[in-house]
Amino acid sequence: MLKKELLIGVDLGGTNVRAGAFTPGGELITANETPIDAALGPAAGLKTIEKLINQVILASGQEAAAIGIGSTGPIDRVRGLINNPYTLPGWDHVDILSPLRARYGVQVAFENDADAAALGEVWMGAGRGVSRVFMLTIGTGVGAAYIVDGAIYRGLYGEHPEGGHIPVDPLGPACYCGGNGCLESLISGPAIAERAVRLASEHSRGYLGGKLNDPQGIDAATVFAGARQGDADCLSLVHEVAATLARGLASIFMLLLPDRVLLTGGVTRSFDLFEPTFRSSLAKYNVIIPASRVDVRLAGLGQRAGIYGAARAAQQLLE
């Protein structure tokens, strides 16, 4: 009889779904991913998820002890519902837990994807062995999670911190959260791209000006590429993003006093470009709270952080 100790971690995003099979010690045995094709609806999506879970269970040669799901939000983790018609079209009030519990006969953990990724980093990544870890994901949006003594911090109604919506500039651009100048509206990939298009239109020169024939093609990666070539507008925008990130994190430092901050997401792939300005800007806040003692570094698990964290959430159900 197969030993039932396998931990399954699933990371459900708007584009792809990933699954991994882990040992109780956190060793990844096998992993796979596939497009979720969310527009086909939740019933088809659930079949895709089950197929992926079956594949990693079969490849591991063991039986599942528990399953964890980290999902793009909004979600209702208590009731096990996905409420996300934004990046998962048609997935509103979708019960994802009941079908998986019935199908596999095990407990199923359900977490926001940002929380799951941070939990994964604390379990087996760049947050390992650290008591208080705050993680900021800077990509299409800006997500945040806080892990304290190995557990996900839960606030009012069990919600997780929305670090991406910390007000940074009251005169800044409007955000869908209802505020102006929050961190996400200033340093996310789309925010950087929007600022770049404005700069290109204003100046019609340099690296960005040369891209005006296709403004839809200007994104954050365009800005970082231009900065690497020494373009003045791109470099200025990179420095602006770095200083804004420092201001946002200073608020987090003052309030939460984390031991370590992990940065991840597509924008952070160019961290080497804005790190000097970021570090020097952050040093300005090194007075009341010694910001220099907070260890800020890049996360370590990359795109697999979500499946690691989902598996760890599943394991915590068994503890």
What does this structure look like?
With 319 residues, the chain is of the alpha/beta class. It folds into two domains: 4-123 and 303-318, 2-Layer Sandwich (Nucleotidyltransferase, domain 5); 129-299, ATPase, nucleotide binding domain (Nucleotidyltransferase, domain 5), CATH 3.30.420.40. Helix content is 39%, strand content 23%. Helix 5 crosses helix 7 and helix 7 (220-228) crosses helix 8. The model has no long low-confidence stretch (mean pLDDT 91).
Q: SSE layout and pairings?
A:
Layout: E1 4-12, E2 16-22, E3 28-35, H1 42-60, E4 63-71, E5 75-76, E6 81-83, E7 92-95, H2 97-104, E8 107-112, H3 113-124, E9 132-138, E10 142-148, E11 151-152, H4 183-187, H5 189-203, H6 206-209, H7 220-228, H8 232-256, E12 260-264, H9 271-282, E13 295-298, H10 305-318
Helix pairs in contact: 3-10, 5-7, 5-8, 7-8, 8-9
Question: Which labels suit this protein?
Answer:
Nucleotidyltransferase, domain 5, 319 residues, single chain, 10 helices, 5-stranded mixed β-sheet, globular, alpha/beta, 2 domains, 13 strands
